[in-house]
Input
Amino acid sequence: MQQNSLAGHEPHPFKWYVPKDAQTLIIGTFPPIEKRWAYAFFYPNIQNNLWKILSSIAGVALSLNKETMISERQHILHKLKLGITDMGGVIRRLAPDSKDESLEIIEYMEILHILEEYPSIERIILTSSSGKSSALGWFKGYLEKKEIAHVIPKGTKPLKFEIQFNKRNVNVHVLYSPSRRAANRISFDKLTEMYKNVIDG
Output
């Protein structure tokens, strides 16, 4: 993993991956420390359930073949018309672990640039919402920085709100995290159903 010598600043190791006809953009926080990677792509820790959820929705099996792990996941994204990225463009790790609460945001990923480049995107899924260092927390900070009006509802997930960008409405969905740490809050089947409902539009 590349690391900037400037006070431990760590740039995101991957460029966003968005099929040309993507309708949904999934946004996480930042990849875990490299020793937890099974492959060099988004959500590289196989303990996280995101790819199992998307595999179930797409009806595409995932193998443990290291040579095909990335291409299998990209195939799922194309089949479901999903793009994927993270909110953290550059971060600093406050502890040598993979917890979101140990991350400090230095630069946001340019989400509005992605929306501009891919006008087919109609909705965003944020994969975490607990605390300041979450996909929702960082997305909120990014919207404030870009002066994009937003009202985030309170209550039980799933949550939904709307942003306007270049005279275009984009729905934002806040779902339960697919991480193993959050697995005690919702069953795998319910979580898969929640993601499927949003992805299907």
